[in-house]
Every structure is written in C-alpha cells, then in structure tokens.
Amino acid sequence: MKKNIEEEITSEKLAELAGYSLYHFTRVFKDVTGVSPRHFLSALRIEAGKEKLIGPSYGSILKTLLDIGFKSFGTFSSKFKQFVGQSPKQFQNSAVKLHRFMNDYDEVNLEIPVSVKSPAVRCTPEVPVFFKGIIFVELFPRPIPDQELP
Asked: What are the residue boundaries of the HTH araC/xylS-type domain, all occurrences included (predicted)?
C-alpha cells in the first residue's frame, strides 16, 4: 500500500495478491491491524498527505491529493478532517506556526516532570544517536487516530 499509494488500490486486489478470498483477507487484516484495509489505506494516504503539505517542497492541496491517490478534493478534505481534526489548509498553516515555535526550542533541554498522577504511562523512545529534536507521544483510543478533536 505504501509503495503504491497513488494507485487505485482495492481490497479485492490486495486479497488476490495475498492469495486469500476477500472475506478471509479482510478478516485477517482487521485482526492484525485493528482496522479494515480501506481504513488503513485512508490513514496511510492522509499521513502521506500531511508529509507533502508540510514538506520542504510542499505544493498545492490539489497536487497533494492527486499525488496520494485521492480523486476528489471533497473526499480528501473530509477524510483529512476526520483523521486529523482540521482541514488541510488549517493543518498546513498550523504546521508552519508549530515549526517556528519549535525552532525557538532548538537547543533547550526539556526535562520530564518527575511527579505524575495515576493512571499514567511512561515510555522511553529509542532513537538513533544522531537524532536531535523533540518527540511527541500521544495515546489514542483506536489503532489509527481518526476521531475529530473535541
């Protein structure tokens, strides 16, 4: 799916490639990922769209949606808002603001608060030695976040 994101990918084609019936493929896929193949593909496309919208050579929203396999602006926009919680343009604008804000903290060492109220989750991301930056971690109620923000 990732390698051919701009192609028309159907569950039928995926099942055929896997050598399963559509029903069996869909069931196994959902058991493994927690979501249907269509939902997973939409999430991949939205993630690719986010990267293109804020990447170094970002272009128009129309070019972005065509590059990631969407055929209609309306579908892309509504799916984007469903998965991200804001329109593609709002996301693009807020990403620019966030980038500027984060640049202010380029050399700041942020400490993790020691006292955390229960229930809590603690994690330690493992990153390459050369990694420099801030990592944001968030928990979602579903395997792929796709709910509008409150």
From this structure: 1-94
Q: What does each of the 150 residues of the chain score in pLDDT, given as a tens digit?
A: 888 888 889 999 999 999 999 999 999 999 988 889 999 998 889 988 888 888 776 667 888 888 888 888 888 899 888 888 889 888 888 887 777 776 766 555 656 566 666 666 777 788 888 888 777 776 666 656 554 444
The CATH code that applies to domain 1-139 is 1.10.10.60
Q: What whole-number distance in Å separates Cα of residue 123 and Cα of residue 74?
A: 38
Tell me the CA distances in angstroms from 108 to 40, 100, 129, one per residue in order.
37, 14, 18
**What are the residue boundaries of the structural domains of the chain, listed by start?**
1-139
Residues contacting residue 53 through CB under 8 Å, at least 6 positions apart: 61, 64, 88, 91, 92, 95
Q: How many CB atoms lie within 10 A of CB 37?
A: 21
pTM of the model: 0.67
Tokens standing for residue 39:
């939902």
